[in-house]
Structures are given as C-alpha cells and as structure tokens.
C-alpha cells in the first residue's frame, strides 16, 4: 500500500481531496503529510484575487483558469469566505456556477469557509496551498471576498495579488479600499463595459499616485531578520498596474494574464520571489517554534499550577511580569 | 522626586500623557510602569463604540462623555483609526471638533493611529486603556471606525460594545455588518430623525433574530482553559438591544446611558465580568510567556545558527518540523 503523500504526488484526486480535509482540520495525519510533502513545494505561482461582492471576481477567476489551462498549466482554485457563518454561502454558490471548468482533470477547486479565528483561516489556507503546490499545480489562485484583515493576511501568502473593482459599487468603503490598495500588484477594473468604468479607473489611479511615495517594502514577519535582505533599489520597485476586463466575455483576460506573468518575472529578477519565500518560511518556522516551546513549557507546569498563578493575577496580588517570572523559573508551590 | 507611576496615581495629566506615549511606543520604561500600575487596574468600565464613517459616532461619544461627566465620573476617550496612514486623519479631525469637552479636567482624549501591524494596535490600545484604568478613569470609551478584524480585536477589550448605525448609508457591506453584529451588546440607530430610521432598525432587528439562535459565548483566547467557566444558563444570556439616538441634540442619550449601565449590571450578576477579565488576563499572560520563552530560546540559539537552519529549509533539504526539532534539541553544528 502506498502512502497518502505518494498518492498525491502521483496525481490521485481522491487522495488529494482527503488530505485537504485533514489539513483543513489540522489533524496529526494532515500535519505529518504536510511535512512529508514539504520537499516538493515552492514551485507554484500563488495568485491572490480579492474584491468586494459584485465585482465579478469569480467570473474573472474562471476566465483566468481557462486561460492558464490553454497554456497547459494545472490550476488550483482556493475560494475563501471569511464572513460569518450565517451570511456564508455566496462563494460556494459561485462555485456551482463554474460549469466551464468541471470535468477538467487539470483543475481542482476547493472552497473554504471560516472556522473559528481568522488567524486559523490564514494558516489553514497556507497549508491547503502547500498541498496543491506539492501536488504539482503550477498556478494556485486564492480568491477572497475583499474586506478586512483576513484578506491582507491571505494576500501575504500570494506572490501576485489582484484587487478587483467594478464601476458603480459606491465609494463609501474608502478606508477598506485603501488598506487593500497597499497589497495590490495589479488592479483590475472588471465589468469595464459599464458606465462609470472611466471614473473608477481614474479614482484608482489617483489613489495609487497617493500611495506611490510610500515605498512598498515586503513586511518581514519572522522574529529574526533575514541576513539576505538586499537594499531596496529602483529596479526592485513594482508600480501596480491597472487592467480593464470584461470577464463575462473574456475581454482583457489575455492582457491580464500577461501582466501576471510580467509580475512573476519581476519577482524573480528583483530577488523578491526568494525574499518572500524566505519570509513566509521564517514566520512558519517561528510559529512552529513557539508552539513547540509552549508544549515543552506545559510539560513542566501543570494546568493547576498555571490556574493558581492566574488567580493571583486576577486578584492583582501578582503582576503579569511577576507571574511570568514565577512560571518561567519554576518557583511554584 | 516621585516616579511616573506615582504622578499618574496622583492625577498628573502631563505625566499621564507622557506615559501614554511611552506605552504606545512600547518602550522599556513604559512596560515597567505598566507593570507597576497593574495593581490599580480592573475597576474601569470599558465601552467600545464602533461604526462606519458617517454614522455620527464621534458626536455620540461626546454626548455620552458629557452625560457621564454629569454623573461625576471621570471619562477617558481612546479614538482609534486603524486605516492606512495616507487616508488617516478623520478621527483626529473629529477630535478637534470636541469643543464641549475641552477644558474639563475630568476628561482625557487620546487619538491613536495605526502603526505597523493590527495586532500591534490592539496590544497598544489594551496598554493605553490599562493606564487610564490605573489613573482612575471610571469610564473608558474606545472609539473605532467599524470595519474589519481590528475592531473585533479591540471589541474584545471592552466590557460593553456599541455598534452605531445610521439611516441611508447603503447596505452593500452586509458581510462586515454581520461580523460586527456578533460583537454588539447594544445597537445604536443614530441620526434617528432621518428618513429610513425605521427600516434601518428593522434590518438590524431581523439580523439580530437571525443571529440569536447562535449562542453568544465569550471566546476564550488563552492557551489554558479556565477551570472557573460556568455552564451557560438562560440568565447568562444578553440579547443585544437597539436604541435610537439623535446625538446632535442629545436625544436618546439618557436612555442609552441607562442601557449601558444595565449591561454592566448584567455582566456582574451573570459572572461574565470576571470571566472576561480572566480571559483577557490569561491571553496577556500567554503572550508574555511566549515572548519570554522565545527570549530564552534566543539566548541559546544564535541568529547565525538560526539562519543556517533557515537556509536548509529554503533549499527544501530540511522540513520545518525537522528544523524545529534541530533547533529545540540543540543538535546544531
């Protein structure tokens, strides 16, 4: 009998689906398989696509998928709905509409709903993406409903982030847009045949111009500074592009795919590809280290001892700093 | 010479302002003062006020502050703008308009802008609130521009969370609203003299009814489960209230203040006050423990050694799990 990992490396879709579930649920088997698959990762181009409901984001993702399929690439789509459980379903509903892609063995679509914390969702997404990467999917598109911190966290995963806008959706969410602009590598004005496309593009342009003086530096999330970070030079700077599309009839898709390829090239030539990969792995290693350190700590300090200290903190007879010192130095009764 | 902490306990506003800056910048002195002030904390009622731009949130906060002042309570206002630096300024602009409160020594207003990570902002806010608490401010209002994860994080700080709506702002941000509804203890329909107030209230009511089957359980963020968590009973459940106000002429403010007082009473009677305090302190202790464990780890493993392991992970010759094991067991060359 071959292992789950081997089945996945051999292209078994059923095994892939099974592992994705395990990885999403963060089971021990899932974690072990992730670790075993790790040597096979690092090859896929991760593309984040974010935008508010109504921007036609899902159609755009479908069209891009069809385009990449024509280029002979294997494509995975991870659709994320971080909204609350009782409003959910929109993303899943969209998936049902993806008739164009069904039956194609070179495409794998996975929907993920929010479960628990947003931090948890970002981690689960990272793991799911890693599985697709190991399974040989060259293009992995991560689709999110654009609002809030979860999208920003998930965008950090992607090599290339597309922010999708559409004319006539109202501009009362400026603050959100501003946050999202900062993560955009390519801005897409979809539904470009609608009235107002011109002014949407103009608004984006002026926001970009406003944002441009601020240097885009990839945030370093690990606790250790990488020794390999090069000094930012002119050639390293990517100025976000604006691309018009009409996803429903495929207009602008070739051009958009070309921009995506250009961005990938930029990342590789500038060294950003490696820097991002390193930063991502560092923060992963940091998280794993922290949880290992915490596990080891728990072996030494019982829940009972911890609760006793906690009681004293709650009564204000111990300060948090004193409590930490007590717990760390084992000076517990 | 007396210490900064003592000056603050004695009501020195200049010393308070200075410490707030230190705490915001997370300096060593700031941290030490926070720890020294810790025994004096745990008394204030923390009220979170969140709502989209245009809901009249700031006027509402002003009116509430005036109300609490008439009750003889000392009031601190922490205004947070988590939006990106180049769109910032709205909250600060609002503060300038707070003429009613200026010159009153029983009121202290502090604006905080986003700096770096949102997690960092939540932590800085928690620390600023703790300083106000120790300084004897009985009411601390934390005002946020309602959108996204940052508000949810900051709401976790508050004992009572108000979500402010206004008629005619459009309903295209349902997903965000849904997330925010889950944190609301009191829903405020401000600008209630405007057309559409009726239907705004109705929409909120139906969302609340939709949300109600889902039991509201206070999220436990610490790594340890508290032994003292009681089983949720009928009497423990708070069903969010809806209150109409017209902040500009003070209508509904007395009633709103009454609801806030009722919620505080509910928290105390149901035991939720203590449970929340414990959960908050536990997650604080957890964070402090994690950083102490990481510090101790760094004393054993040099940056150089860490980077060498990292290089091997980047080359895929070590898996993250293997790397953690190597780093933890000191089996480094």
Task: Name some characteristics of this structure.
homodimer; 333 residues; alpha/beta; Rossmann fold; 2 domains; 7-stranded parallel beta sheet; 13 helices; globular
Average pLDDT, all residues of chain A: 80
How many independent structural domains of chain A? Answer: 2
* Beta-strand content of chain A: 5-15%
Largest interface by Cβ-Cβ < 8 Å: A-B, 73 and 73 residues
Question: What is the element string of chain A, with H for helices and E for strands?
Answer: HHHEHEHEHEHEHEHEHHHH
| Oligomerization state | homodimer
From the spread of the alpha carbons, the general shape of chain A counts as: globular
Helix content of chain A: 40-55%
The CA-CA distance between the termini of chain A, in Å, is 52 Å
Q: What does this 3D model show about the protein?
A:
The structure is a homodimer of 333-residue chains. Chain A is an alpha/beta fold. Chain A has two domains: 41-214 and 231-270, Rossmann fold, CATH 3.40.50.300; 301-329. The first copy, chain A, has 13 helices and seven strands. Chain A has a seven-stranded parallel sheet with strand order 3-2-4-1-5-6-7, sandwiched between helices. The longest helix of chain A is centred in the C-terminal third of the chain and has 29 residues, at 272-300. The first copy, chain A, is globular. The interface between A and B is large, with 73 and 73 residues.
């Amino acid at each position: 009998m071959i292992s789950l990992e081997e089945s996945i490396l051999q292209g078994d879709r059923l095994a892939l689906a099974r592992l994705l579930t395990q990885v999403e649920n963060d089971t021990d088997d899932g974690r072990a398989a992730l670790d075993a698959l790790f040597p096979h990762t690092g090859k896929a181009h991760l593309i984040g696509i974010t935008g508010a409901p109504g921007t036609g984001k899902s159609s755009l993702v479908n069209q891009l998928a069809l385009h990449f399929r024509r280029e002979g690439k294997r494509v995975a789509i991870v659709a994320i709905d971080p909204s609350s459980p009782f409003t959910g379903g929109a993303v899943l509903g969209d998936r049902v509409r993806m008739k164009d892609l069904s039956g194609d063995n070179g495409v794998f679509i996975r929907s993920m709903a929010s479960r628990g914390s947003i931090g948890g969702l970002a981690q689960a997404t990272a793991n799911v993406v890693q599985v697709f990467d190991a399974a040989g999917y060259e293009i992995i598109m991560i689709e999110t409903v654009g609002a809030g911190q979860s999208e920003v966290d998930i965008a950090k995963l992607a090599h290339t982030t597309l922010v999708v806008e559409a004319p006539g959706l109202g501009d009362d969410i400026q603050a959100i847009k501003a946050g999202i602009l900062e993560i955009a590598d390519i801005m897409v004005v979809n539904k470009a045949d609608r009235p107002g496309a011109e002014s949407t593009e103009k608004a984006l342009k002026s926001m970009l111009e406003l944002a441009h003086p601020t240097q885009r530096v990839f945030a370093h999330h690990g606790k250790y500074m990488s020794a390999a970070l090069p000094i930012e030079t002119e050639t390293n700077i990517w100025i976000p592009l604006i691309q018009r599309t009409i996803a429903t009839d495929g207009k602008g898709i070739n051009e958009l795919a070309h921009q995506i390829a250009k961005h990938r090239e930029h990342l590789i030539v500038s060294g950003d590809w490696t820097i991002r990969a390193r930063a991502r792995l560092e923060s992963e290693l940091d998280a794993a280290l922290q949880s290992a350190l915490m596990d080891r700590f728990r072996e030494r300090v019982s829940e009972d001892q911890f609760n006793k200290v906690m009681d004293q903190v709650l009564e204000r007879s111990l300060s948090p700093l004193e409590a930490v010192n007590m717990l760390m130095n084992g000076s517990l009764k």
